[in-house]
Amino acid sequence: MFRAFTRIALAAVLLAAPMAVQAADIPPITYRERVLDNGLRVLSGVDATTPNVTVQVWYGVGSKDDPEGRSGFAHLFEHMMFKATRNMPSETLDRMTEDVGGFNNASTWDDFTNYYEVVPANHLERLLWAEAERLGSLVVDAEIFNSERDVVKEELRQRILAAPYGRLFGLMIPQASFQEHPYRRPGIGSIAELDAATIDDVRAFHRDYYRPDNAVLIVIGNFNEAQLDAWVDKYFAPLKTPETPLKRVDAVEPARTGPGVYDGYGPNVPLPAVVLTWLGAEAASADAPALKVLDAILSAGKSSRLYNSLVYEQQIAVEAFSQADLPQQPGLFAVGAILSSGQTVEAGEAALLAQVARLREAPPTEAELNEARNELVTGALRERETVDGRAFALGYAWATQGDPAKANTELAELAAVTGADVQRVAQTYLAADRRMTIRYRPESERPAGQAAVEPAPPAAQPVAFDGEIVTLAPESERQAPPPVGEPADPVLPTPAQMVLDNGLRVIVARSSDLPLVSAALIVRAGAWADPQGLAGAMSMTAAMLTEGTTTRTAPQIAQQIEALGASLSSSAGLESVSVSLTSMSDKVEPAFAILSDVVRNPAFAPEELERQTTQALDGMSVAYEDPGQLSAMAVGPVIFAGTAFGHPADGTPASLPRLTPESLKTLHDRHFRPDNAILVLSGDVSPEQGFALARQAFADWARPTEALPAQPQIAPAARRQVVVIDLPGAGQAAVRLAKPAISRRDGAYYPAIVANSVLGGGYSARLNQEIRIKRGLSYGAGSGLSARRTTGAFQAQAQTKNESAPEVVDLISAEMTRLAADPVTTEELTARKSVLIGAFGRALGTAGGLGGVLGEMALQDVPLEEISAYTAKVQAVTADEVRAFAAQRLSPGDAAVIVVGDAEAFIEGLRSRAPDLRRIPAAELDLEATDLGAAAP
Question: Which of 183-192, 296-305, 663-672 has the lowest mean pLDDT?
Fold first, then answer.
């Protein structure tokens, strides 16, 4: 991945002064530091409460270090580092992580590239050996270079070209905001510059930056410190540091002398957008804490200034955001908005500038300061729930400020920020005459005669690599990985439960000593309960819960929750509505009172419904321009046509305007009742505390006398059909094969999830192997099986360049067929089971993850004891059971094929395989109609 430029946050009005949380409430990250003779820095921290360990290596090389004319090199290396070394064939690292129940990933930022794994702790030595291998003896050859370059191109198409605002955030903002500093270059690169690169360029880049004195190794988890030191000395100490000094970027971005305007256009832009940027500070600046608080005041949550003004009051934007981008060298401060339908970039710019001017003219209130601190501290707390989150905090502080200890001083620095500090940095950095305005509009609005031409790549300095060229050693000469150690036993939570007199089921599970509590109130009714012609009614009912009650306005709910540093959200799926709360444990009681109020007493005010409907329609217009999102929305109407699941859960552009406050209140009165609900609490909460909270908030919730509405049983037959949704100008095609699946309580559930894990449940699964790794046709391919109360759904999907869509359909179909025909080997079966078991265990390790697992079990009438039985049931699945399930339920012969993209590039190839395909123009798509709208020739 590469660093996304912005986080989008929505907000509302401030009404009362919250109490500020103290930084001392957050336990520090304990770690030990040592430096090897070759310059490698080693950070380590022991956590004996987990059976896992994270191994991370952070390198001081990011996209700012890309050679001129070779943008995307640092990101390309993020991919290549997962391939071969002298002693490891390609994909070995995936075998050593994913196949043993762990995971790996990496990311490229402006200043650094980080590689990280989480594995069972008994695999620590093997991972240290592997990380030393790819630091000291990476294979950089033409075959690997070419294959990974193809994958990066597909990632660029998916993230930048296919996403409606990908060009804006990934390309235009940095290019428009910097003149000289290499922060202006897109981290993901460009297809032209990647194509122009040579193998000598790539080898020289690796030699220059992948060296011990440019790296930090971070290990946190369950291990013995003395043993770790011995392994680090064994595998990393022998690596040599080159005598040549490290290359460092010394470019200085010149100060702006006046405002500027950049006009950008895209082919699939449903709503205009505007972003204002200013040159900002670096991460180590004394102004950084105040800029972070300024950012939170502007856009963190629904009680922030930008949301309140642009989204809630003026309704000129569907989203408003800000970002204090504080990298190693001076970065940017940005504010922006995706505008509502019918609004102009000029109106958006004026509204954004008005909010910036407010902070320049007067300091924020003490209430705003305290709220910002609470939100930032709670965010840090959530990060520290996991070993990899704690390691990331240390690595980020090292990479951006040069000192991992800054991870433990940051919160105190934020707490010391005053209102005068916030006003001062606003005045210092956000001058009206130093802004760059980036306007982003549809391609159709580009002025006549102004062609959209991609510039030729800049001339690159020729490179002739004369260093050592590493090759994969013959199998007989390779060094074997270290052995696996003794496993650490996981500690499984023990949930407790009770039923209140009114029928509310309450489940509590203590999972952490960190002061964080997660709660969810789950109602057993979802989109299946939508009245005929009112698709999205239950989804809108859920959205409206937090938009005002009989005693609190929408802004009051936002302000009161966010003042506590808590978060409150609501959403609906096909079978349920969930209202979720996360709070620090010392503030959970007042947060629970608000949770109870929004669940039981929503007002469904007409003006709030109008706001929510307008925002939903604007959001839908964006989704309809994204091939991945649009293909996902079409699955239900295609495979469940004619049933209660046969419409989009979030509604359609035609159905949402039909919703009324009365229709939503009727749904709420019918389904929101204590004997139709489940309350789950997890985290730093005992059963006694959880039950007391439940009684206090919900014991007086009256149970109606009428009978509960029953969820209909849904069992549609799978049916072969090929649907093409034509989205002209789409940067990629999204390919999905889908069909009805099984219920959660079906006896074949465990063979089903193992079969899916083999087929498409991860990086090492078959679909990704065939489509991404072997052919470079996609950034990622996979499958999923959702087993619900009545029936479920199976989907296999990938995004690819438009002309490759027919080939990808064939590859997915072939792998589904092979799974049913050929037995899975013992080695593959063991690996794919480990993926499931490891992911399940990690989910139980956070408050929110544990609550999610328990809530799903309760919703689907699965005994909670399944937590302890899960591993054994997965392990018991046989190869014959996998093959039998695949033959019975995963045949591609009766699967629906959905392809969304620029049909002109692939329609003939697909028609030759399916002469009866239906081609539906995206502009005429009707997801409520059984035929999805009129088919085009």
Answer: 183-192
